[in-house]
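<goal> How does this chain fold?
<body> The protein record starts here
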Amino acid sequence: KPKVREAVANCRKAGVIVKMCTGDNVLMACSIATECGIYTAGVIIMEGPVFRQLNESQMLKIVPHLQVLARSKPKDKKILVEKLRALGEIIAVPGDGTNDSPTLKTAHVGFSMGIAGTEVAREAPDIILMDDNFSSIVKAIMWGRCVNDAVRKFLQFQIS
């Protein structure tokens, strides 16, 4: 989609790491991730069947460096989110299908697509993107951080 590369670059500048889970094969996933600016040198690209065979300690070691998960199933996406949460990461997940619903609920913040998303996917998330645009996630992060800063300053003022 247009402007995704720019949005991914803005995420990086803001300290947000973008990971991609897709049902596509590894070659297609790598191509898309490279085109979007998600893939960077020295990271791990893995297929869902291999990911599912990892034990708990292997997953926890690989997940921080995993940037593209190809040939993945919805359960793989949910497992990835759970492992990242276990490592103390704050997770935001976009999704548009019924099969994304459990992952949208597992993430700290779930983003559903308002146009292409199914009714079930629109009921699960915290935020619905009315334009189905990845760059809207970047805007939501910016506004969320502004609100968080304002609340923090207000509480600090009230306490002192």
